[in-house]
Amino acid sequence: MDAPEDIYSTKILEVVAAMPQLGCFEGADGSASKSSKLCGSKIEVCLNVEDGKISKYGQTVEACLLGQAAASVMAQNAIGLTKEEIVSIRDDMLAMLKEDGPAPNGIWADLEVLYPVKDYKPRHTSMMLVFEATIAALDEAGKS
Does the pLDDT of residue 6 top 80, yes or no? Predict the structure, then answer.
């Protein structure tokens, strides 16, 4: 197992640096906030939905580097996706972290930088916050 500092690779820093600055916005169809009691990370997601797909996406991220990396990948890819697609990538991430499954691919390939963190269970929650917040925001949008 790598030392904890080894999970913070240059690749993770590059993914975080590429995060679009998409703060939350007024008039969202749905919004949700999720936080980790363990590390204090917090992510708020707001979004609009048209024809069952995310048409506008914003987020406010106050998270560790690992949570920021996952949020960066989400912010780069969320537009145009359905709730089912977001649930699917969330499930893929859980499988990678908890069941030694493969790293996500396609538009989610940058999430592979988080693969080494699978051995650090206390860090899993912060990486999953953005997926859970996005799903909860989509649920809220579906109620309106």
Answer: no
